[in-house]
Every structure is written in structure tokens, then in C-alpha cells.
Amino acid sequence: MNISKTYLPKEAEEKWYSYWLKHDFFKSVPDEREPYTIVIPPPNVTGVLHMGHMLNNTIQDVLIRRARMKGKNACWVPGTDHASIATEAKVVAMLKERGIGKKDLTRPEFLAYAWEWKEKYGGIILDQLKKLGASCDWDRTRFTMEDDLSEAVIDTFIHFYKKGLIYRGVRMVNWDPQGKTAVSDEEVIRKEVNQKLYYIKYNVVGEGSNTEFLTIATTRPETIMADAAICINPNDERYFHLHGKKVLIPLINREIPVILDEYVTMDFGTGCLKVTPAHDLNDYELGQKHNLPVIDILNDDGTLNEKAQILVGEDRFAARKKIAVLLEADGYLDKVEDYKSQIGFSERTDAVIEPKLSMQWFCKMDEMAKPALDYVLKGDIKLIPEKFTNTYRHWMENVKDWCISRQLWWGQQIPAWYLPNGQFVIAKTAEEALELANASTPGSGLTTLDLKQDEDVLDTWFSSWLWPISVFDGFKDPNNADINYYYPTNDLVTAPEILFFWVARMIMAGHEFRGEAPFKNVYLTGIVRDKLGRKMSKSLGNSPDPLELIEKFGADGVRVGMLLCSPAGNDLMFDESYCEQGRNFANKIWNAFKLIKGWEVDENLVNPNEVAIEWFDSRFNQALTEIESNFEQFRLSEALMATYKLVWDDFCAWYLEMIKPVYQHPIDRETYDKTIAFFENILKILHPFMPFITEELWHDELFGDRSELDCCIVAQLPKYGQINTRLLDDIEIVKQIITQVRNIRNAKQISPKEKLDLSVKANSEVAYNLYGLIITKLGNISTFGFTTDKLAQAAGFMVSTDEFYVPLEESIDPVAECEKLNKEKDYLTGFLKAVNSKLGNERFMANAKPEIIEVELKKKADAEAKLKILEENLAALAC
RNA sequence: GGGAGUUUAGCUCAGCUGGUUCAGAGCAUCUGCCUUACAAGCAGAGGGUCACUGGUUCGAACCCAGUAACUCCCA
């Protein structure tokens, strides 16, 4: 026999992953079994594997492997999304390195480069997931921009346009001046930033002299040229005299009115608010209300345009500094204060978001939100943990229309075609568009050359919300076997950050196109943070490289490590030490295997271990039910912990110690066979968490011959068996006895090798004769006997109400012994007093449930019995 | 500013309908062991005013109110 001293993961991982692939164990085709389906949250093609993916995909793999082992037809569909903004930024950067500007390219040329980039880098994450052991059906790998999925996106656009749910409109959008595109609210990251609050004086018109001013406070002095009004609160007594007046914008001397609105907070700044409808969302709404003109002074790249009159061509931030100087010089700057406020940054480019009015495509949400909310409120879809239902409801009840256009090329181009007269038609192809165009403008004789397709593409989420349907070709062929079989999927595992803009919209699309929710459970994972609670990020450099972790601790170790620290829905404070614990666990399993592997069987021996075997069998069945219940509630870390303790404590530390033969002695056939059967069952329940080591051991000859397809990955989980609770309880008592004996050794510094005697004065019904063998073996007891008398010259202890004695040669210290007994007596007396006062309380007796009272009575009886024995012992010691 | 959540051992977390000897687990710590499966280990032990203050109740980690700290979402 030549087994390494520790488990070496690397070899096993490579061997078994390719074995699984080769035998198509991940593959799923519809059949008569019950399906269990997960669609992966498609990582974007620009990404590399980070800790969030590790967590997310470990969970999915555990679920899918367990389903497979429960006899379901398990299908985990992988894929990626095209991430229009992020990918386009990467491609632009790549081109720049090659000395090519995006402006120098035609759209098809640019897209050719983008596809090249995608082919090269777009599969990295999926390949990395294989290292983790992800058992995805790789033949089903999809990409949101492949032909069929793109067609689904375009059809969806047309579908909703025809329904009147997609419209074109001018709206204030979050403009990313660097990416030169609109981004959604969800892609804006708000951060608290130190700014300056500029107090600027505006001349009041028509008071004869130039001496009267009003002062406004703003963080954006560069936008004063776009002001349309000054607004004050009508109740503000300080400014009654300004009602109906006009003021002049400093530097450019344009006249604007003073308007009245209770929107203005009197105690913020000066109580005078500059209203700049083109550059602030709230101002825009205020402007609409008061019919103010919209003056947009910014170009798409964030520089000032000619409407600003001054500082034309300057970047907004340069202009801010310069205008402060100009205002100061001309005496318009009253003062500058430090000020903190929230500023939006683009998630993709980190540019400061500019509120900007622009023509965009929108998708109406309120109509779709209603049924999508109901699925969750009625429980057809369960959010785990439940607390997210609140958040979900809040969002769905206050939903805003979805800006779906992006000023980019990488993505599905919006199927809108503009006629020379400015009208547009919505059509899938140029030809159809031409027909529609000619129909709408009879006799115009348009050709395809006269039509111009909208330059913009659709938001990536407009692809991914179709994901659970489109991966099964549910748009192209709505009645195909796959979609009918796999949809709705079962569980979705994703991050709470995208509950709204992905999960909610998938529910909407599912309802719209299939009339059914796309999944039943949504398991929301937390954010992986470092142990200091900081988000893992590239800039902080506090994120471990997942592949290095796998290298260091093995994939199984890392999977266990991730799950150990991941309560559902809560952020997890990741630390490498969890992976270390996972690795140690793998090693423990390995060594238990080594022990069993080393045994020789003697067919002539009778089985002395019936009790131990029956006990572990019960314990195993008990653990199975615990694990199942944890899984049902998606308490994966607890399911893992229950498994961990079963294996490490119950199996290794107790069971194996109970049955293990003396060194170099053989074992009986029955114990040997049973133990191997136990071990095989243990491998099964471990497999979803630790697929590699379990598969590796599964194939050892210890378990007999295996056919090529007899693999742990497709083994069926053990069935529930009998649980002998009486035996489980008894063994708990036996364990206490053994622990107490070990304690005596420790306290008296007696070597574990030295055998001791043990006598019991049994006052209870526990059948100690059954457990003599276990007690003598684990306690290293030479003789275990019964006595009816208390033994002097012995160390004593009590378990439950039974008394135990370990005779010792050296005399015991009566003072210490008395102290010990007295301490226990004091505790019990106090305890008994509390119980008695409960039982003596009329209101307790009247109100408490009968079973509670019964319990109290039992407590009383037990305590009294124990106290009696204690007192006898104290008397015997003459304390 | 509005809403939600969290606070239990040094760390990460359980604690289900208020009721067992209920204050728990894993890790970490400490003590003793290289006892031939495993030192990535074995045996044992010590750690907590359940954030704070009140209230309800026969009984509160759990229910209610207030306070504090932290986190997230929205403005």
C-alpha cells in the first residue's frame, strides 16, 4: 500500500474533471425524470474570476450536484453576457494601443475588432470556473450577443414597441461624458465627496443702482450660464421684496426671473436656489412646472458649448475653477465654503455623471411591475433571505421607466429606422422598414438608402432579462422540448445588488413571454469582503486570486472555505483561514480512509462492535435529516457544518475509535464491511461540497470494482433509515463517562497508556453492560464493573444520576474533592430553588402549557436525586 | 432627509412558536501529548452584562418602546 500522507488535490482535480467531462456527466437532455435547472448569472466577457464568482458558483454547483444525486435531471446552463459599456471600453483601449481610434473605424470594422476581443478573452471566467469544479453543461454555453439571442432581443423590442411600452423621449439621463453614453441609475455609484459651496451674487434688475444683490449657493458655478431662474420659497420673509423681480446672471448679464416655489428649503444655503433645468434633475422638474426654457451648455464630452457664451470648449471641471476666478475678479463671489455631498460616478468609467437631457428610448415599467411584484408577494417566487422581499416591493412600487438605449456600438442595434422627414419606423430588417416607411409616406418612393437606422444599441440588461428563456431558445421556438422541460428553472443564485435590474426584469419578461415566473427560489448571496469588512477591490488589492487559493488549498478546500463563512444574504468576511480549514478537513477524510484501507480482515472473528455500528447508523440517519432540512431552507453553511461534524466528530473521533482494531490486529468481516458502507455514504453526502476528493476515494478498490460510469458524481444520496434515539442518548452518556475518565488522567497526570479501573454505582436504567466494551476501549479501562457501594480511595464523578469511581493508588485530596462537591451542590441548590419557585407560582401553574410543567417537575426530581447523592458523598468524605 | 437591516465568546455565525441543565457551534486561544490514520493531528480546558435603557409576562437573547453604533437601499 502506498498512499500519500496527506491529500494531494491537484492531480485528483485534473483527473476527475476531465473524466466527468468525458463521460458527459454534466450533460442534460430532457427525459422522464424531474428536471432541476439553474441558469448561471452570466458573468461579463471582460471579467476575470473574483471571489464573488467563487462564492456564487460554488453555491450553484453544490445545489446542482445535490440535485443530480437526488435523481433529478440536473441542468446548469453556463454563459456570458456582452457587457456593452465595459467591453466597448476595453476594445477602445485595445485599439488605442494599436494606434487606432474608434472614430476612424466604421461600425462593422469596429464590431469585427470587438468580436476578435471577445473570442480571445470572453471565455476566461468560464474556463476558470472549471478549476472550481463547476459542473455546468458546457455544451449549452450561451452568449447574449450570439445570433439567436440577439434576434430575441430585437423581437422583444418590437413586441413591446407594438404594445406601446417602448417609447422615445427626452429625459434627464445619467450621462457618462467619458463613455459618451447614458447609463442607468443602477450603474451610477454615489460617493460622498468633498466639494466647495460657492456663494454667488446676482444683481437684482431695476432698482436704479447696482447695489442690490441676491446670493445663491452652488457647488456647480460653471452652470450659471445655463440658469433659467432663481427660485425662492414664497414663505421666506427675507425675500418678500424680490417677488416678481428679475436678476442678471453674473459675467454674461442674461436676465432671468425670480420664481416662487415651496420646493426650496429656506435654511439651506441662502434660501435662494439657482434653477438650471438642463443640468439638474430636480431643476428640470421645477423648470417644467414653471415653463422655464432649457439651456444646455454642455457638449457630450463634458466641455462647454457656445451657449455658455464664455469658457467655450473648456472641460466642466476646468471651467469650474476658471469661473470662480472670474467671479472673484468681478466681485460676484461672496465666499466659498467646504461642503460634502453625494456625487454620482459611472460604474464603468468612473467619470462623474452629468445629468443630461437627451433623446433616449424608454421601456415603461409600471404595468409590468405589478405582476412581477405579485409573484414574490404571493410566494410563487421565494427570495432568500426573506428580508429582501421588502426591498423588492419598495422598488417595484416606485419603479421608474427604464432607459434602454446606449450610445455605443457593441450590442444589439436599435431596430428603429429614420425617414428623411424625421419620422421613424420600427422593423426587424431594412427591407421591412422600407415597406413600413413607404406605407406611411405614400408616393415618396423611398429606397433603403433613404433610411437611417438608429445609431444606438440596447442596454445589456435588455438582453439578460431574457436569459432564462433565451438560453433554451424560447423565443426562436417557443414550444421546443428544452424550454417546455427546463422552464421555469428552479433556483437562481445571484447578488442582491442586481435584484432589481436583473432579477425583477427577468420576472417581468418571464411573465410576459411565458406567463410564468422564470424560477422558484432566488438565493441572494452576500458581498465578499476582507476580514476587516472592506469590499474586495482591485484598487485596495485586498482580494486574493481565486486560482492561487485553489492552488494553495485545493478546490475542495476553497469550496468548503467559501461556504463556511457564507450565511445567506449576509456579507461574508472572507479570510484564507477558512480555506485552510477546508483543506484540513479534506486531509482528515483522506486519513480516515487510510486507516480503513490498512485493515486486514480475519473471517473467523466475530463482530464485537454491534453497538457502535448501530449507533453510528442512527447518528448518520439523524444527520441526514438535519442536512436535508438545512438544504430546504438554503442554509448551506449549516448543512456543511452538520456534515463536517458528522464526519470529523462522530465518524472519525468516536466511531472509528470505537471499532478500530489494536495495531496490527485484524478486524472482523462484518465491522469491516459496515464501515466501508458507512464511508461510502459519507462520500456521497460530502460530494456536493467536495467533489474531487470524494470522487478520488470513490474509485479506490476498497469499495470493490466500479464500472466506468459508477461515479460519486452520479451516485444516489443515501436513503433515510431508522434512528434509535434511545441509543443516541445512551451514547451521549457514554461519551461523558469517557471524557470524565480522560479528565481524571489529565488532572492526575496519568498517561493515556496506563490502564485504569472504573466502577459504576448505577442509579439509573442505563444498560451499561452494553457499553462496557466501548467504555473500556476509549477510556483505556482494564476492568469496568458495577458496585453497590461508594468507593473510597478513588476519583469520582457523576453522569446524570449515576456515580463512577476510578480507584487510584495515590490518595485523593479530600479538601479539593469537597470543594468540587460543594460547588456542584451550590449550583444544584440554586437551580432547584429556581425550579421550585416556578412550581410554587400559581400563575405559572395556571398559564404554562402542561408539557412545560412536566418538564419542570422532571427537573425537580432529577435535581433532588442528584443532590441526595452529593450529600451522601459529602458525608462520606466528612466535609 | 426617507426606508430597510444588523448588534450574541477574540473572529465568523446559529439560536425556529417566549419555556428542558439555554446561553450554543466552528475557528482562534490556553494546557498536556510526535498515543504508528491524521501535528493540516489527538485529549482536555477557559472565554459572553445576548449593544444600552425601560416596558409587557409567571417567565425575555427572543415580544414592545426608546437610545447608541454600524451596514445597505432610495433621495
Q: What report would you give on this structure?
A:
- By secondary structure, the protein is of the alpha/beta class.
- 43% of the residues lie in helices and 17% in strands.
- The protein contains 26 helices and 31 strands.
- Strands 7, 8, 9, 10, 11, 12 and 13 form a 7-stranded mixed beta sheet that branches. A 4-stranded antiparallel beta sheet has the order 6-5-14-16. Strands 29-28-31-30 form a 4-stranded mixed beta sheet, covered by helices on one side.
- Helix 9 (366-377) packs across helix 15, helix 18 packs across helix 22 (725-748) and helix 19 (636-659) runs antiparallel to helix 20 (669-686).
- The longest helix is centred in the last third of the chain and has 27 residues, at 850-876.
- The radius of gyration is 37 Å and the shape is elongated.
- 39% of the residues are buried.
- The mean pLDDT is 90.
- The structure holds one RNA strand of 75 nucleotides.
Q: Care to give the gist of this entry?
A:
With 879 residues, this protein is of the alpha/beta class. Strands 7, 8, 9, 10, 11, 12 and 13 form a 7-stranded mixed beta sheet that branches. The protein has a 4-stranded antiparallel beta sheet with strand order 6-5-14-16. Strands 29-28-31-30 form a 4-stranded mixed beta sheet, with helices on one face.
Fold topology:
Elements: H1 9-22, E1 35-39, H2 51-69, E2 73-77, E3 79-80, H3 84-97, H4 107-121, H5 124-132, E4 142-143, H6 147-162, E5 166-176, E6 181-183, E7 188-204, E8 213-218, E9 229-232, E10 246-248, E11 255-260, E12 272-275, H7 281-289, H8 316-329, E13 333-346, E14 354-363, H9 366-377, E15 382-384, H10 388-397, E16 402-403, E17 405-406, E18 416-418, E19 424-426, H11 430-440, E20 452-453, E21 457-458, H12 461-464, H13 467-470, H14 481-486, E22 491-494, H15 499-514, E23 521-524, E24 528-529, H16 546-564, E25 572-573, H17 576-597, E26 601-602, H18 610-632, H19 636-659, E27 667-668, H20 669-686, H21 691-698, H22 725-748, E28 756-761, H23 768-779, E29 781-786, E30 794-799, E31 802-807, H24 814-839, H25 842-847, H26 850-876
The chain binds one RNA strand of 75 nucleotides through α10, β25, α17, α19 and α22.
